[in-house]
């Protein structure tokens, strides 16, 4: 590799690929986000604040003056705060076991730990209803329709976020300070608390902020497990929009949610950046020790968490899907999905819903991958200009917004704006075309967060050397960046496919008669009063959960290292 002479200026990464190329790479996903995310969301909010063509802000004091509004906001913060605390408390031991110890089957356990994060929300909600509801093994504890059922269900998803975010950081953490403390006479616990824990604090705080973001915008779990009594901002927006057509109230609550989401995104981004600068990280994870006596507490907590929080609800869901209304073992619930009896809210058979869901999810995943690769290429650059670095930081936060904005707001906003958008002669609302678009918006941040750490880990000298040897912008990207993505691109595609397959919030708004997706079918079956509908809903949830888990486990086999924030 040619070496740069003393005093020779280092070429900017923006010059290597050419400014026009980077502008185009950023403009394509920006245009997609502006058309299908920003415009619908802002249009819905504007609709709530317009009266006869004039701005009317009287809804703000009216909504915030209602006691229920503050109760809903308080419940949102309480649910998210408690779920975040539980996720961090259980995710830290999981990170230690999976990323700091070496034992047979560790890779399989890592893959299994990823599955809960991508399971559809309606599947997890159905599992916890089966576990804590009438006839469930925990029915006597009074957890059904309770705050703690919601908190545990939210933790079910987000322990994985903490374990992976903290674990990948911890695996590359320089542990020489902890070893020095041990040499000086400190016990293992004291040495860890005084050296390693402070070093992990930025990663823990960043993971906690991200988990709080996910929990504060949860829809399916709170809708199924909490009902109206334990509504959060997300489900309250849905109630105001669908049941009362109160766009003014929904718009005001959307602003409150934007404030919560914006604060969580800012905190997460700053803590993640601070964590990258604050400690010494190795380029790759070092050799990990075998489990010892001192690791027993972490192993016990991890085992109990995996058995009680993750396995118990899913096993209960599976078993109860084979139970009839009188407790007898039967295949009637699955038979009802193949040949639906009259009265069940199914448009066709489970095969129809599954085939439609798979096609839509695949299209959404491909859209998210194309846009995600472009965004990751742009965001992975480190320009010398301070203004450009700040612009990229803002851009990075903007890409995460679809994860934090109400799916209900997005879905209803798309219905308002997609009547022949930009003058095209086709009403997008009359087809299923909007569903893969909405699902791609949800999957896009996951794709970016999976690919970005890989691209940021590329040695910049490789790009400089290729440019020095005469490689053009496209050649640099084709021969260096894209090959480095390799199997991580397959993992990102799996994330996008599984997340799109289980998307429920926006899809429930956009689904058309005769085009019912599997998550929507599960939600409608579980909540329908028709005889046999609940059992059929459990069976459909098992099918949906099995599909999502299978996709994610296959995608996890493509992971070659521990990089990636999810």
Describe this structure in words.
The structure is a single chain. With 566 residues, the chain is mainly α. The chain has a domain of 208 residues: MetI-like (MetI-like fold), CATH 1.10.3720. 71% of the residues lie in helices and 1% in strands. It is built from 23 helices and 2 strands. A two-stranded antiparallel ribbon has the order 1-2. A hairpin with a 2-residue loop joins strand 1 and strand 2. Helix 2 runs antiparallel to helix 12, helix 5 packs across helix 7 and helix 15 crosses helix 18. The relative contact order is 0.14.
Average pLDDT level:
83
* CATH fold-level assignment of the domain at 66-176 and 202-280 and 303-320: MetI-like fold
- Percent in helix: over 70%
Q: Estimate what percentage of residues fall within beta strands.
A: under 5%
- The CATH first-level class of the domain at 66-176 and 202-280 and 303-320 comes to Mainly Alpha
Stretches where pLDDT is under 50 for at least 5 consecutive residues are none
What CATH architecture label of the domain at 66-176 and 202-280 and 303-320 applies?
Orthogonal Bundle
Main beta-sheet strand count, sense and barrel state: 2 strands, antiparallel
Q: What is the terminal-to-terminal distance?
A: 34 Å
Domain ABC transmembrane type-1: 73-266, 354-555
Membrane topology: Multi-pass membrane protein
GO biological process, one term: transmembrane transport
Transmembrane segments: 21-42, 77-99, 111-133, 145-163, 200-227, 247-267, 296-319, 356-379, 391-416, 428-448, 488-511, 531-553
């Amino acid at each position: 590799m040619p070496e740069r002479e003393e005093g020779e200026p280092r070429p900017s990464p923006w010059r290597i690929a050419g400014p026009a190329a980077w502008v185009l790479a950023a403009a394509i996903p920006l245009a997609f986000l502006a058309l299908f995310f920003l415009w619908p969301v802002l249009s819905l909010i504007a609709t709530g604040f317009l009266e006869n063509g004039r701005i009317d802000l009287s809804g703000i004091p009216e909504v915030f003056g209602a006691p229920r509004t503050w109760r809903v906001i308080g419940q949102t913060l309480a649910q998210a705060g408690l779920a975040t605390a539980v996720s961090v408390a259980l995710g830290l031991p999981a990170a230690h076991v999976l990323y700091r110890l070496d034992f047979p089957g560790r890779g399989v356990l890592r893959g299994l730990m990823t599955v809960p994060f991508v399971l559809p929300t309606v599947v997890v909600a159905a599992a916890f209803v089966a576990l804590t509801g009438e006839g469930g093994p925990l029915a006597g504890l009074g957890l059904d329709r309770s705050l703690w059922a919601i908190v545990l269900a939210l933790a079910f998803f987000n322990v994985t976020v903490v374990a992976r975010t903290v674990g990948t950081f911890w695996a590359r953490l320089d542990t020489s300070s902890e070893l020095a403390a041990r040499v000086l006479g400190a016990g293992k616990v004291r040495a860890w608390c005084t050296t390693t824990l402070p070093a992990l604090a930025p990663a823990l705080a960043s993971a906690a902020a991200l988990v709080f973001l996910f929990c504060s915008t949860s829809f399916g779990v709170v809708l199924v497990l909490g009902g109206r009594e334990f509504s959060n901002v997300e489900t309250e927006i849905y109630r105001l929009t669908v049941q009362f057509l109160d766009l003014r109230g929904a718009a005001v609550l959307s602003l409150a949610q934007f404030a919560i989401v914006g604060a969580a995104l800012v905190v997460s981004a700053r803590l993640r950046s601070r964590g990258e600068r604050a400690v010494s990280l190795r380029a790759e994870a070092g050799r990990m020790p075998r489990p010892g006596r001192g690791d027993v507490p972490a192993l016990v907590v991890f085992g109990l968490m995996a058995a009680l929080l993750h396995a118990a609800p899913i096993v209960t869901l599976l078993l109860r899907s084979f139970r009839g209304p009188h407790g007898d073992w039967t295949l009637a619930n699955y038979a009802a999905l193949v040949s639906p009896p009259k009265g069940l809210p199914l448009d066709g058979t489970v095969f129809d819903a599954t085939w439609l869901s798979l096609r839509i999810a695949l299209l959404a995943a491909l859209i998210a991958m194309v846009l995600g690769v472009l965004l990751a290429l742009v965001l992975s650059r480190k320009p010398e200009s301070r203004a450009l670095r700040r612009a990229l930081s803002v851009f990075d936060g903007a890409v995460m917004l679809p994860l934090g904005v109400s799916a209900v707001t997005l879905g209803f906003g798309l219905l308002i704006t997609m009547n022949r958008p930009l003058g095209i002669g086709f009403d997008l609302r009359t087809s299923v075309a909007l569903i893969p678009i909405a699902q791609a918006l949800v999957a896009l941040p996951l794709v970016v967060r999976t690919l970005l750490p890989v691209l940021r880990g590329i040695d910049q000298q490789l790009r400089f050397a290729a440019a020095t040897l005469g490689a053009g912008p496209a050649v640099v990207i084709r021969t260096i960046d894209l090959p480095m993505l390799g199997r991580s691109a397959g993992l990102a595609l799996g994330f996008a496919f599984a997340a799109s397959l289980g998307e429920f919030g926006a899809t429930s708004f956009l689904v058309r008669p005769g085009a019912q997706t599997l998550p929507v079918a599960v939600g409608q079956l579980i909540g329908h009063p028709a005889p046999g509908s609940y059992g059929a809903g459990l069976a459909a949830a098992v099918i949906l959960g099995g599909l999502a888990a299978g996709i994610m486990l296959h995608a996890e086999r493509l992971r070659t290292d521990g990089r990636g924030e999810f």
